[in-house]
Design goal:
α1 (3-25) crosses α2 (32-42), α2 (32-42) runs antiparallel to α6 (162-176) and α8 crosses α9. This protein has 10 helices and 10 strands. The chain has helices at residues 3-25, 32-42, 47-59, 62-70, 72-78, 162-176, 178-192, 199-206, 208-215, 232-238; strands at residues 93-99, 105-108, 111-114, 118-121, 127-137, 141-150, 225-231, 241-244, 252-260, 264-271. A hairpin with a 3-residue loop joins β9 and β10. The protein is an alpha+beta fold. It has one domain (3-271).
């Protein structure tokens, strides 16, 4: 780990630890920053670049992607596309994978029924996005946030490293701030409690960026963020989301980290 990253990580982890202890002492909910930092630290760092390389390969190959969707935890541990297995134990992490490339309709009788289950609020046209990001996944509703980046005609592919991947997560956290993330958690948790046909849930799925702007004090501009809104109830009809469930008796933390491309995504949450 580079000296720059080490000091950045130590500083952020110190702040996160103080936040966690403060909330625990006061009997309050742990901050989103504290939960995400704990998830990052609890994972084996070598997995970060491996997950990035694997998901990039799966994004290009629908046949192999199907293997991931069938049994995500087992596939990660046995795949040979990247140099090492990716072990995410079921007593420590929940792993959820997403097939973003599947058609969003099913056929009932002779009629096509729209089961639109996710929306991507894309960045400005001239911008790309970092595939790594952070978010919230509840039982019914999820939201994933990625930072934007400049696109250059002569852009060179840079090899993923543990340092570089960790910095992406830490920069996303610090860019959004504690207060913004905690307010977002409340908004997504409230949405999760609404019924499938509630208009607010529909508004969120239709335009997540505008919904957050209207319902909170938060602005997530297209110049800075790509946003993915997810409805798990609608996704279940299409079999486009698979959760690698945890050992019984554990509680899954809603906040987590992930990697999303155009056709495939993965989200990792701590189980305690």
């Amino acid at each position: 780990m580079s000296k720059r990253l080490r000091w950045l990580a130590v500083a952020l982890l110190f702040v996160g630890a103080v936040i966690v202890l403060s909330f625990a002492v006061n009997g309050q909910e742990t901050s989103v920053v504290g939960e995400i930092l704990e998830t990052v630290v609890s994972m084996d760092g070598i997995h970060f670049p491996l997950i990035g390389d694997l998901m990039e390969a799966l994004n290009q190959d629908p046949e192999i992607k199907a293997e991931l969707m069938f049994s995500p935890r087992e596939y990660l541990a046995t795949q040979t596309l990247v140099s090492s297995p990716i072990i995410l134990e079921n007593d420590a992490f929940q792993v959820t994978v997403f097939d973003l490339g599947k058609e969003s309709e099913i056929i009932e009788g002779e009629e096509a029924v729209d089961t639109h289950w996710f929306t991507i609020a894309e960045p400005l046209e001239h911008l790309g996005y970092k595939t790594k990001g952070i978010g919230f996944l509840y039982e019914h509703i999820g939201m994933f946030i990625q930072e934007t980046k400049e696109i250059f005609d002569d852009e060179v592919t840079i090899e993923r490293t543990v340092d570089g991947e960790m910095i992406t997560y830490l920069e996303t956290i610090t860019g959004l701030t504690d207060e913004v993330l905690d307010e977002l958690r409340v908004a997504i948790r409230d949405l999760n409690g609404l019924g499938l046909d509630d208009t607010e849930r529909f508004d969120f799925l239709s335009n997540p960026r505008q919904y957050i702007y209207d319902k909170t004090s938060i602005t997530l501009p297209a110049a800075s963020y790509r946003i993915i809104a997810i409805d798990f109830d609608r996704a279940a009809e299409l079999e486009v989301v698979t959760r690698g469930e945890t050992r019984p008796g554990l509680v899954v933390v809603p906040e987590g980290i992930g990697e999303f491309f155009d056709n495939v995504g993965i989200f990792i949450q701590q189980a305690k």
